Amino acid sequence: MRTIDIHSHFIPQSMWKTVDTGADWFDIKFQEENGVGFTLSHLGKDQVPLPKLRFTAEQRIDDMNQQGVDMQVVSVAAPLYNYHLPADEGIELAREVNDEIADMVRLYPDRFAGLATLPVQDVDLAITELNRAVNYIGLKGAELDCIVNGSNWDEQQFFPFFEAAEQMGAVLFYHPQPNNNIAVQRNGSYSIPNSFGVLLEDSLVAATLIFGGILERYPDLKICIAHGGGPACFGVGRWDRGWTVRPEARLNIPNPPSTYLNKMYYDCITMSESALRFLIDTVGIDRVVLGSDWPYVSWDPSPVSWINNLNSLAEHEKEKILCKNLESLLNL
Question: Per CATH, which fold does 4-329 belong to?
Answer without folding.
Answer: TIM Barrel (3.20.20)
